[in-house]
């Protein structure tokens, strides 16, 4: 029986969040009474006590199954308890793809952006999820066993801190009363919750107590403790609870570095500090009184800095947004042109302004002055102001607090935040406003609040682990040279992107905050190689003996004199150098200087976009200034299976309406198409190019019909097959794909397409000749197959056809017998060689001349047809042919 056949069907599944607590487990047990036929999937927990309780008491008593035992395609209803966040049930991620799935959710946590859309269930702001389910069981008059009452009671007692947390509600007490009526044993619960701690845990608790420091943040006492251990210590939350009792503090944040993560556990007894909101900012969860987060790729110092930034912003006594905002706001109407908008912002000295609907006043986004000014300089001043909104901007309500504004301005990098009331913009808060508010108390200012003091993530270990040793050594040498020259050196762009994505990439790009050409020449004296300089662009290429190319650039800012122009270069800083790049995922840098090696530089939220799988441009004129970025956006989206962000999609469509592709030279278009043809998902790229109307914009005859799509699908299969042969000769993929794209186009129409792509006369003639040759070969092949000719005839028929034509031939005719013959030619016949040569014919007394070729060709035909397998047979045949030109066979009695 196969693995798929052995899996069980599970129309209804009950589950909870990863790293479950007692409330989550208890809620699952309670929910099974509402869904009696459901399968329970427990995702595991880091709390040792809970794991043991689950294994010893529950796993066999109830219908718990491992996710690997279930055929997830059979799930029709998913019941989520103690969470509504899709990312917190990643163990069942593929269930969400089921087309007929319905979701019921029972949860007591605040709403988040990641919440699923539920079809049923109940969400209430009570002390525990188990309480909500008790309410449902009691309402439906469902009775439970004493053992079940004990399990469900554990969840209520844990999540209410035995009814001591300020999140406790009257409903929690009532649920406990109902459970007592069902037979709950409070002694059992006390024994399980109040448990002894190990020697390791005692040592860790002592370290926490010694490190604890209380901070007065706006008259609120916040205790922060830090510990570090190389091994994971279970039940960290238990230690926090005990420390809470020992210290008698109202708010406690405990940071524990264990293995490769920082574990943050938080408790609060006062309404002024919502630890659930703070832990959610770290990717964790919980509620106002108790929450936690597990944080990867950040140091304890970084986590602590961000923690203080969140605390200062969330409880800072500056009042509401209404009290802090600037009003009345300066607004731009969507009927106004970009030039008008630029004039308004210049007149009032604004760096950005909201754009609103002229009829309703509804905010449509934020326009930055710099972008509007550049659009005007490109002759696009008459375009509507809405065309160059960077993205769908976040807004806040007037009763929001500073925390919400900080998340948008510092977290999302949005320069200005519109304040919305009854769908109208009543005010704005700017980045400058926020900094001025926070800087009133500089002594308390956490490092992560001010961008220029923000700590950087180190990926040094990634570089060492994911790069060849010799390449990592080059990075070190480049950094050492930078230090000796007194300049900062960075590895930048796609090289850094692919390190983070663990994708092989040895195309190293360096940027120097100094003279890049001088740096390249000095680096060549250290590691060898030769330098080719490009003074116009202030760049150089260092070519090493092993063939590796290292591009070295001066940190520069590019600006475009007119749309679709090549860039003009000015000296600038690394931030400006990164800002000139195409997409956020390519706007990353890594410092190489000693002491900083591996520090990641990310000004534009690139890591977030990599994690979210989004292709996003850096500024709204990106596709106007360089329309080739449209093709690159599509290429990167398909390469990494990312989505093109909503605003980036709109900007692409806007550039297409302006017919920006027509302004590109054919050479640049063909270069981008050639890059696409080297990708794994070529057909998906071409479909996107068609959908965005890029193909027809390049040339009206470039289409993607259903017939062409089918041919391209077969071509991808053939190319993948050929790649697995590991033959030395590599096909020129651009030629093969052009043959497929031009299939069906009349021959007299092909030359204009070649001219649009700026192909040279030689390239165009080669393409036309190959097309003609391939079609002729296909015709001859059909005749050979129909008359069942010998293999040698097939060999000589295909011999003159280049590899690109052969592969196109295979894709065009996907019949099994045709592919069998072509495969045999490519894998066996094409590389066949004779064991004799012209020298042997000369030794037989034949005078040099045309007959050499004729005789060797006849002998090769015999070899292919299996009549002269060895050298002796071939020599025998050669003797016969030399003495008797009409001899065509081999005697069967040859020795």
UniProtKB/TrEMBL annotation:
An annotated Gene Ontology molecular function: nucleotidyltransferase activity
Domain CBS stretches: 325-383, 389-447
Cofactor: Mg(2+)
GO BP term, pick one: tRNA processing
Secretion signal span: none
InterPro entries reported in the protein's UniProt record: CBS_dom, CBS_dom_sf, DHH_sf, NT_sf, PolA_pol_head_dom, PolyA_RNA-bd, tRNA_nt/polyA_polymerase
Pfam families, sorted: CBS, PolyA_pol, PolyA_pol_RNAbd
Keywords (A to Z) from UniProt: CBS domain, Magnesium, Metal-binding, Nucleotide-binding, Nucleotidyltransferase, RNA-binding, Transferase, tRNA processing, tRNA-binding
CDD domains recorded: NT_ClassII-CCAase (cd05398)
Similarity remark: Belongs to the tRNA nucleotidyltransferase/poly(A) polymerase family.
Protein name: tRNA nucleotidyltransferase (CCA-adding enzyme)
UniProt organism field: Desulfobaculum bizertense DSM 18034
């Amino acid at each position: 029986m196969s693995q798929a056949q052995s899996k069980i069907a599970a129309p209804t599944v009950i589950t909870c969040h990863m790293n479950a607590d007692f409330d989550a487990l208890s809620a699952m047990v309670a929910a099974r009474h509402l869904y009696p036929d459901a399968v329970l999937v427990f995702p595991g927990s880091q709390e040792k006590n809970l794991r043991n309780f689950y294994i010893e008491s529950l796993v066999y008593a109830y219908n718990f199954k491992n996710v690997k035992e279930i055929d997830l395609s059979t799930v029709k209803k998913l019941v989520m308890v103690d969470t509504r966040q899709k990312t917190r049930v990643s163990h069942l991620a593929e269930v969400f793809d089921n087309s007929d799935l319905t979701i019921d959710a029972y949860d007591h946590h605040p709403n988040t952006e990641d919440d699923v859309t539920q079809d049923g269930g109940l969400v209430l702001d009570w002390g525990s999820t188990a309480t909500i389910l008790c309410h449902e069981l009691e309402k439906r008059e469902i009775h439970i066993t004493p053992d079940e009452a004990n399990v469900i009671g554990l969840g209520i007692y844990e999540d209410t801190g035995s009814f001591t947390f300020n999140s406790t509600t009257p409903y929690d007490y009532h649920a406990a009363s109902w459970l007592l009526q069902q037979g709950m044993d409070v002694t059992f619960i006390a024994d399980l919750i109040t448990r002894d701690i190990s020697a390791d845990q005692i040592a860790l608790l002592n370290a926490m107590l010694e490190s604890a420091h209380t901070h007065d943040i706006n008259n609120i006492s916040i205790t922060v403790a830090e510990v570090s251990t190389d091994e994971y210590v279970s039940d960290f939350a238990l230690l926090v609870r005990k420390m809470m009792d020992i210290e008698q503090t109202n708010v406690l944040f405990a940071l524990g570095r264990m293995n490769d993560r920082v574990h943050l556990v938080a408790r609060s007894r006062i309404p002024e500090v919502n630890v659930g909101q703070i832990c959610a900012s770290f990717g964790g969860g919980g509620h106002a009184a108790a929450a936690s987060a597990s944080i990867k790729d950040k140091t304890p110092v970084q986590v602590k800095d961000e923690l203080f930034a969140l605390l200062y912003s969330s409880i800072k006594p500056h009042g509401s947004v209404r009290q802090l905002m600037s009003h009345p706001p300066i607004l731009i109407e969507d009927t106004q042109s970009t030039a008008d908008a630029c004039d308004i912002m210049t007149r009032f000295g604004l760096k950005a302004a909201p754009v609103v609907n002229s009829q309703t006043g509804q905010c449509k986004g934020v326009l930055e002055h710099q972008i509007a000014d550049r659009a005007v300089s490109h002759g696009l001043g008459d375009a509507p102001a809405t065309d160059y909104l960077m993205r769908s901007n976040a807004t806040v309500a007037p009763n929001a607090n500073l925390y919400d504004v900080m998340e948008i301005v510092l977290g999302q990098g949005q320069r200005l935040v519109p304040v919305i009331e009854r769908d109208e913009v009543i005010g704005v808060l700017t980045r400058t406003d926020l900094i001025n508010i926070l800087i009133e108390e500089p002594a308390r200012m956490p490092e992560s609040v001010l961008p220029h003091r923000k700590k950087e993530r180190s990926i040094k270990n990634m570089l060492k682990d994911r790069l060849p040793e010799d390449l990592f050594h080059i990075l070190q040498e480049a950094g050492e040279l930078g230090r000796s020259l007194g300049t900062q050196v960075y590895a930048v762009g796609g090289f850094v992107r692919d390190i983070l994505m663990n994708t092989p990439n040895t195309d190293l790009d360096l940027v120097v905050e100094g003279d890049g050409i001088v740096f390249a020449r000095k680096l060549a004296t250290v590691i060898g190689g030769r330098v080719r300089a490009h003074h116009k662009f202030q760049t150089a290429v260092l070519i090493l003996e092993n063939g590796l190319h290292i591009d070295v650039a001066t940190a520069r800012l590019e600006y475009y004199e007119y749309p679709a122009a090549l860039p003009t270069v000015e000296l600038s800083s690394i931030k400006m150098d990164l800002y000139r790049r195409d997409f956020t995922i390519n706007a990353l840098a890594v410092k190489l200087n000693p002491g900083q090696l591996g520090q990641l530089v990310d000004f534009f939220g690139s890591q977030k976009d990599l994690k979210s799988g989004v292709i996003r441009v850096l500024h709204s004129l990106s596709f106007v200034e360089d329309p080739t970025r449209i093709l690159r956006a599509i290429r990167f989206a398909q390469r990494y299976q990312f989505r093109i962000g909503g605003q980036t999609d709109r900007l692409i469509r806007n550039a297409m309406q302006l017919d920006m592709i027509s302004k590109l030279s054919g050479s640049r278009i063909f270069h981008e198409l050639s890059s696409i043809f080297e990708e794994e998902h070529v057909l998906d790229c071409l479909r996107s190019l068609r959908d965005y109307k890029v193909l027809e914009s390049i040339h009206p005859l470039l289409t993607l019909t259903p017939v062409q799509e089918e041919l391209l699908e077969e071509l991808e299969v053939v190319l993948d097959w050929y790649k697995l042969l590991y033959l030395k000769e590599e096909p020129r993929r651009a030629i093969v794909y052009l043959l497929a794209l031009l299939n069906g186009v009349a021959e007299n129409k092909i030359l204009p397409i070649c001219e649009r792509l700026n192909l040279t006369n030689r390239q165009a003639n080669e393409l036309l000749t190959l097309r003609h040759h391939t079609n002729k070969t296909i015709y001859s092949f059909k005749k050979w197959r129909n008359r069942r000719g010998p293999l040698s005839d097939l060999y000589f028929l295909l011999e003159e056809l280049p590899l690109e034509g052969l592969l196109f031939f295979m894709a065009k005719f996907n019949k099994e017998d045709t592919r069998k013959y072509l495969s045999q030619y490519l894998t066996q016949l094409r590389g066949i060689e004779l064991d004799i040569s012209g020298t042997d014919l000369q030794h037989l007394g034949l005078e040099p001349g045309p007959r050499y070729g004729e005789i060797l060709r006849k002998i090769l035909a015999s070899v292919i047809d299996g009549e002269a397998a060895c050298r002796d047979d071939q020599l025998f045949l050669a003797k016969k042919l030399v003495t008797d030109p009409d001899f065509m066979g081999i005697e069967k009695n040859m020795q």
